[in-house]
Write a structure and sequence with these properties.
With about 400 residues, the chain is of the alpha/beta class. The chain contains eight helices and 24 strands. Keywords: FAD, Flavoprotein, Oxidoreductase.
Length: about 400
């Protein structure tokens, strides 16, 4: 059997890992089949998760079959169900649910994150924008609201969680509701956040811009409030307050894909695997982790990667290069991403763009929105299917900060 780099996941980190590995194999004259690069994922497509708060969510995916085929990456359709680091093997469920086992020389875990679902009564009544199907279900629900009798509940959306996703989702809701219910409908959008400030993880830098946008969009906030129960007619808060709403959207955080539990290694509070600067899982010679399942240092001053598309793309390029370098005995290129930016969509109001870990506001309003639109419609999409162009784009020293 030829040596095999096996990558689990075809998201941002998984796609770029595969291309990054093929790029180095190509440079080293090893793209002759002596080393196979294979990807296991449910579908050969990239789901554009950063855009799932937008309308037409069902369109937020991009095909990867041609990109992979031209680059020389083998795609295997299936869901990984078990990892044996002792046997260097992965078990996956393929077509018709048949179980298959595949060996690897080196493994790259790029399985991404899943929505955090705490034990809250009635949480299954809430919608979310975590996956394409989830976001499409929410969109269909909103479109059908106009068929319901006029009521305060029908006209109210509650967004649970005031973090990045919650803010972007809430900012989109006023005009989405009016499109469904009529331009003059008396609508309410309420963000419920456990912390005492909106965007607690974003810090104070962009907060005044967010608050201004919410004020002008008509988005309300309930800060320092926790949802204790959800039903089909609304939510109950820890204070005892009842808010009637036909639409509740849960956005309160993410966790690393639970398959990380099968790797006997140190993890952070979000289930991410501790990795070294080359993205190798600490304590495992043949396993790398990247994207949302990696707890990685971005620099030498203590900053760590976020669960974001911005970091996943660069983590993927680095993981792919370094796992191939490990296999070939070539010097790795340690992962580093010292520049950190955020670009937060604020719906029709605009956006806010910040730079640095202290998130200094550089652009806001319409100007920032133009940048956000370019990020969402151009920069985060897969590369050209042209082999040379795709491999060139996978250079780990080509840092993308978007």
């Amino acid at each position: 059997m030829s040596e095999r780099i096996l990558i689990i996941g075809a998201g941002f980190a998984g796609m770029w890992s595969a291309l990054g590995a093929m790029r180095l194999l190509d440079q080293q004259g090893k793209a002759d089949g002596s080393v196979e690069v294979a990807v296991i994922a449910p579908q050969p497509e990239l789901h554009i998760r950063p855009r799932l708060y937008e309308k037409h969510a069902y369109k937020m995916k991009a095909p990867l079959s041609e990109v992979f085929a031209n680059a020389g990456v083998r795609f295997i359709k299936g869901y990984a169900t078990a990892i044996s680091t002792a046997q260097n093997s992965v078990t996956y469920s393929g077509d018709e649910g048949r179980e298959n086992t595949m060996g690897y020389t080196k493994l790259v875990l790029a399985t991404g994150s899943v929505l955090f679902r705490p034990d809250i009564p009635g949480l299954d009544h809430a919608f979310n924008v975590d996956q394409v199907a989830d976001a499409a279900e929410l969109e269909e629900h909103i479109l059908q609201l106009g068929r319901l009798p006029e009521s305060r509940s029908r006209n109210t959306v509650i967004v649970a969680g005031g973090g990045f996703t919650g803010i972007e989702t809430a900012a989109e809701m006023p005009h989405r509701l009016r499109a469904a219910l009529g331009e003059h409908a008396d609508i309410r959008v309420i963000v419920v956040e456990r912390n005492d400030a909106i965007g607690p993880d974003l810090g104070p830098g962009p907060r005044p811009v967010i608050e201004q946008a919410f004020s002008e969009l008509g988005v309300e906030t309930r800060l320092g409030a926790a949802i204790t129960a959800i039903d089909r007619d609304g939510v109950t808060l820890a204070s005892g307050e009842r808010i009637e709403a036909a639409t509740v959207i849960w956005t309160a955080g993410a966790r690393a894909n639970p398959i990380t539990k099968q790797i006997d290694a140190e993890k952070d509070a979000f289930g991410r695997l501790h990795v070294d600067r080359n993205l190798k899982v600490v304590g495992h010679s043949n396993v790398y982790a990247t994207g949302d399942v990696a707890y990685a240092a971005t620099d030498d001053v203590g900053n760590r990667t976020m669960m974001s598309c911005q970091h996943a793309q660069n983590l993927g390029r680095s993981a792919g290069h370094n796992v191939a370098a490990d296999l070939l005995g070539v010097a790795p290129i340690p992962y580093s991403q010292e520049k950190y930016v955020t670009c937060l969509d604020l719906g029709p109001w605009g956006a806010v763009y910040t730079e640095g870990w202290d998130r200094q506001v550089k652009l806001s309003g319409a100007e920032a929105k133009r940048l956000k639109t370019r990020i969402n419609t151009e920069w985060i999409y897969p590369p050209s299917a042209d082999r040379a162009a795709a491999l060139a784009a996978a250079d780990p020293q080509r840092i993308v900060v978007a």
